[in-house]
UniProtKB/TrEMBL annotation:
Protein name: Protein CLP1 homolog
Pfam families: Clp1, CLP1_N, CLP1_P
Keyword field: ATP-binding, mRNA processing, Nucleotide-binding, Nucleus
First-listed, main subcellular location of the protein, grouped into a coarse class: nucleus
Amino acid sequence: MTSEDEGEEFRLQANSELRFEVESKASVEIEMVDGQAEMFGTELAKNKKYQYLSGAKVAVFTWHGCTIKVKGKTEVAYISKETPMVTYVNTHAAMEQMRERADAENTRGPRMLVVGPQDVGKSSFCRILVNYAVRLGRSPVLADIDVGQGSLGLPGTIGAMVVERTADVEEGFQQTAPLIFHYGHNNPNDNLQLYNMLVSRMAEIISVRCEQSKKVNSSGVIINTAGWIRGAGYESLKQAAGAFEVDVICVLDQERLYNQLKGDLPDFVKIVLLPKSGGVVERSKAARAEARDGRIREYFYGLKNNFFPHSFDVKFNDVKMFKVGAPSLPESCLPLGTKAQDSQTKLVPTLPTNSLLHHVLSVSAATAVDQDIVETNVLGFLVVTNVDMDKSTFTVLSPSPRPLPRNILLVTDIQYMDIK
Ligand code: ADP
């Protein structure tokens, strides 16, 4: 179904939702002309036009009824009265009670892990809960340990931040000073030991951050995870639950996972099974790869092409480049007393070569190589757009102008072709 270009009005009754998808290479503008509505927990302003770009999948929900004008090419656009929003707001209310108790007793607020298969709306659910908390004056921590999408950093990283403002209706949460760790691959299974170590490290830092602020501490932590829930993926979810010392695990749409967690986790962890929204759209492998690419593009160019990245040459000699994790050797080949596992989290110096081309690099916040670089956060990212072995330089795409803020760079597996 394609809506008319001159626009179409949708009248939504209370507790219903307008869902639409923007056609590829098109854009859609929406405007709430009457009533009240919210998008993944952020209230829409009346008579304000919001724009969505190619491929966006959006839901506008109303508790009390509203009228929405939609202009542009939508692939689908329909109203649904079947939404899990009442269950979601009840979850929020339960969290709020835990926060009130934390305030009264001067203790820690709720820590929630959100788990489930791919494409069940985990990220959207986290966004709704965080927004609802912020709307009540809370400052929760949002953590994302899904290295496949990297919504807070880039794919290949995990991140967390304290959220003090609701997400922007078009652009999502404003990322002021997120804490990002370099992992380097888009699948946790590529280096599980490193992945688990970084998740634990992030949990530790978040706990320290919570101790510094009573408000953040009682607001709690919401942790979004990857849809990898079997085998080693399941083990890493349990590991994350332990590292963050979570009180609640919300399982979206999978009874099997819910029962498994109920059987395996201690009783003081409350496991809740929640339905997914019928509006969540399943993405193919290709669509997921495209989303990853889009996220990198957005980092450098902005969602609406409103950022202007810089391009400049860097001398090989001016930087120190590393990879994390060495290929594992059989234990018989290792020095006495070392384990094969250790090599997975080892920092390995790398010399620049042509193979760096198109790779994303993380700029470490570390200032000296004797710091624990693997467990130090990163400041930002570069993409290698050219390598000149004769001149011993490489060209980077960078969000900020020359010089680089630091000279310790970590190479990721992730590639991005900078074609406009
Ligand atoms: P997950 O984190 O489980 O992979 P997401 O929250 O990223 O799932 O949701 C997948 C896609 O579905 C996203 O593009 C999101 O915008 C869209 N989506 C989520 N909820 C709805 C809904 N109620 N109606 C329409 N689209 C939705």
